């Protein structure tokens, strides 16, 4: 395999060293692929040999089991960037292995709008469509132009439009599936230098704009990074609150007919005031609640369970499960189960994990 151009067999590093949660055992092999063709050829050959594969970007959305892992890691590392001036839009095309925030910084630095609200999200460009990353009122679906993928069923290396991806809240046809590997991604930018409309109330407030207004992308980027750092949501080797997989649970969507029962459980536990103030937003399929709010109100406060636990909730944000350096996969999984079960018991709401699980499950 290492004879293929753009593919190098790397030392058998553990996944703990390649993931932001810093847990995970040793794969059979690690292939570092610095070209799109190298990525596609590696996955094609491994699929043909029926070998289990983990396609890896920045490792920021993974919970990986410990021990010896029966899989080969294909690390996507192609990082080229190209700006394409098309008649109706300015497009940026980036290699899937480029660090996402480097791309955001480059576009904003050139004065282009579009990606600024997604500043500071860890991981690679190629993973952004996988779970339709989103933050501060913007999802990647809104700015995605096309994706070049290697289709693992047909063997085609082709460009597809977003409608092929089944993008929805924190998911797509690529998430938890072997459907395809993303090789390159194109995003639409605003060449006039206007940000996406600012929809997120906290961000609009900080920027001093009305919700829905557009403003200077550089200012938005600066403000988003500031907000994210305050919540431990920008990777920082010196801040253990960021040693996580980001938000561990998605915000649950409850059917509208089930909402009164949830409110009454909240009122029974916390009183009518909090029940009335529970964050709730209209969403596809019902009403979206705040996972972080429910976790905290179910008794799992910041830093839970204690300052000596190897796996604990972030001290800045209850939605992030963190490894303080010594945690094993089992420690993280036990805490995740405790939080999920506690919220179900308290309010009758089921939380679903956001990261991808490898060799283990909640
Ligand atoms: C501190 C922190 C904050 C975060 N904040 C946010 C946030 O605000 N919003 C948000 O949406 N997410 C957030 N995340 C989650 C995470 O950063 C994103 O999901 C990110 O897109 C994952 O990218 P990655 O390259 O690290 O993917 P990895 O963790 O390497 O992989 C995740 C999944 O994607 C697959 N994958 C990776 N690359 C490819 C590819 N090229 N082709 C096909 N499949 C691929 C992998 O096989 C795996 O199944 C956060 C995470 C952390 C640690």
TrEMBL record:
It catalyses: UDP-N-acetyl-alpha-D-muramate + NADP(+) = UDP-N-acetyl-3-O-(1-carboxyvinyl)-alpha-D-glucosamine + NADPH + H(+). Its cofactor is FAD. The active site is at 170, 247 (proton donor), 354. It is found in: Cytoplasm. Signal peptide: none annotated. Pathway: Cell wall biogenesis; peptidoglycan biosynthesis. It holds the Pfam family MurB_C. The keyword Glycosyltransferase does not apply. InterPro entries: FAD-bd_PCMH, FAD-bd_PCMH-like_sf, FAD-bd_PCMH_sub1, FAD-bd_PCMH_sub2, MurB, MurB_C, MurB_C_sf, Oxid_FAD_bind_N. It comes from the Bacteria. GO terms for molecular function: UDP-N-acetylmuramate dehydrogenase activity. Its main location: cytoplasm. Residues 23-192 form the FAD-binding PCMH-type domain. Keywords: Cell cycle, Cell division, Cell shape, Cell wall biogenesis/degradation, Cytoplasm, FAD, Flavoprotein, NADP, Oxidoreductase, Peptidoglycan synthesis. Its EC number is 1.3.1.98. Belongs to the MurB family. Cell wall formation. This is UDP-N-acetylenolpyruvoylglucosamine reductase. The lineage of its organism: Bacteria, Bacillati, Actinomycetota, Actinomycetes, Mycobacteriales. The gene is murB.
């Amino acid at each position: 395999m290492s004879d293929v151009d753009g593919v190098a067999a790397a030392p058998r590093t553990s996944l703990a060293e390649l993931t932001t949660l810093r847990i995970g055992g040793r794969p059979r092999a690690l292939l570092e692929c610095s070209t799109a063709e190298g990525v596609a050829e590696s996955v094609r050959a491994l699929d043909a040999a029926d070998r289990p594969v983990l396609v890896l970007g920045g490792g920021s959305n993974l919970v990986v089991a410990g021990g010896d892992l029966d899989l080969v890691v294909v690390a996507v590392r192609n990082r080229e960037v190209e700006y394409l001036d098309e008649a109706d839009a300015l497009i940026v095309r980036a290699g899937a292995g480029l660090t996402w925030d480097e791309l955001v910084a480059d576009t904003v630095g050139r004065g282009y709008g579009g990606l600024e609200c997604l500043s500071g999200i860890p991981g690679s460009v190629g993973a952004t469509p996988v779970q339709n990353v989103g933050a501060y009122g913007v999802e990647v679906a809104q700015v995605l132009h096309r994706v070049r993928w290697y289709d693992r069923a047909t063997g085609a290396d082709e460009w597809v439009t977003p409608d092929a991806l089944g993008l929805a809240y924190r998911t797509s046809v690529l998430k938890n599936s072997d459907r395809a590997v993303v090789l390159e991604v194109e995003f639409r930018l605003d060449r006039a230098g206007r940000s996406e409309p600012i929809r997120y109330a906290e961000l609009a407030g900080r920027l001093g704009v009305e919700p829905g207004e557009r403003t200077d992308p550089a200012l938005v980027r600066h403000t988003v990074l500031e907000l994210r750092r305050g919540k431990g949501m920008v990777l920082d080797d010196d801040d253990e609150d960021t040693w996580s997989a980001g938000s561990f649970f998605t915000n649950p969507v409850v059917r509208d007919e089930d909402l009164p029962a949830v409110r009454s459980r909240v009122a029974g536990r916390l009183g009518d005031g909090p029940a009335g103030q529970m964050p709730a937003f209209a969403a596809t399929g019902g009403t979206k609640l705040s996972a972080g709010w429910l976790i905290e109100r179910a008794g799992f406060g910041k830093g839970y369970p204690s300052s000596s636990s190897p796996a604990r909730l972030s001290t800045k944000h209850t939605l992030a499960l963190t490894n303080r350096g010594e945690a094993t996969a089992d420690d993280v999984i036990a805490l995740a189960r405790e939080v999920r079960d506690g919220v179900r018991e308290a309010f009758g709401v089921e939380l679903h994990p956001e990261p991808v699980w490898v060799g283990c499950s909640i």
